[in-house]
From TrEMBL:
This is Acyl-CoA thioesterase. SUPFAM superfamilies: Thioesterase/thiol ester dehydrase-isomerase. Keywords: Hydrolase. InterPro entries: HotDog_dom_sf, THEM6_lcsJ_thioesterase.
């Protein structure tokens, strides 16, 4: 089940936080609870992505994106993610999540999120996200104009560009495998 109470808590905790520029970093603090574990008694990989939600949504509010979504009847969707898992997170561990937009292209906004435990990075996720309307994807430039922030993206880091290029070579739709 989605952690609605945890999300409510994160939105409450960040309610008076200063606004951020679109590429600003939101930092949030979390704990790995018993219901976040997998069979090996460590943070479940799927739950890691859910915990990243708990950093991304308050970030969206602090940069003015939530207001723009509501005002225009837009939605927000994930169009891809690449994750690296490097350190175990175990029950009751405290973690800190850093969430920031690294830039955008003509269709997507790229979000970098990292999870830290005692000063060491446990995982990193690079998300491709899109703002949507009833007519399809809303261009990031239009989103920026609506928010009243920067219109031009910072240069995307090479590792982000490489991921975009590599992902573009994947066939879509994928081939069906034999049963």
């Amino acid at each position: 089940m989605y952690p609605f109470f945890r999300m409510t808590k994160e939105l409450y905790v960040s309610r008076n936080a200063d606004p951020l520029p679109f590429t600003g970093t939101h930092v949030s603090h979390h704990r790995c609870w018993p219901w976040d574990l997998d069979l090996w008694l460590e943070l479940n990989n799927g739950r890691t992505l859910t915990l990243f939600d708990l950093g991304r949504i308050p970030l969206a509010r602090r940069v003015g994106l939530i207001t723009a979504l509501r005002k225009n009847g837009w939605g927000l969707t994930m169009a891809g993610v690449s994750v690296r898992y490097r350190q175990r997170v175990r029950v009751m561990d405290k973690v800190e999540i850093h969430s920031r937009a690294v830039g955008w292209d003509d269709r997507f906004i790229y979000i970098d999120q990292t999870m830290w435990k005692r000063g060491e990075c446990t995982s990193q996720a690079l998300y491709r996200t899109a703002v949507t309307s009833k007519d399809g994807i809303v261009t990031p430039i239009r989103v920026m104009e609506t928010i009243g922030d920067v219109v031009e993206s910072p240069a995307l880091p090479a590792w982000v560009k490489n991921w975009i290029d590599a992902d573009a070579t994947r066939p879509w739709p994928p081939e069906r495998t034999a049963d």
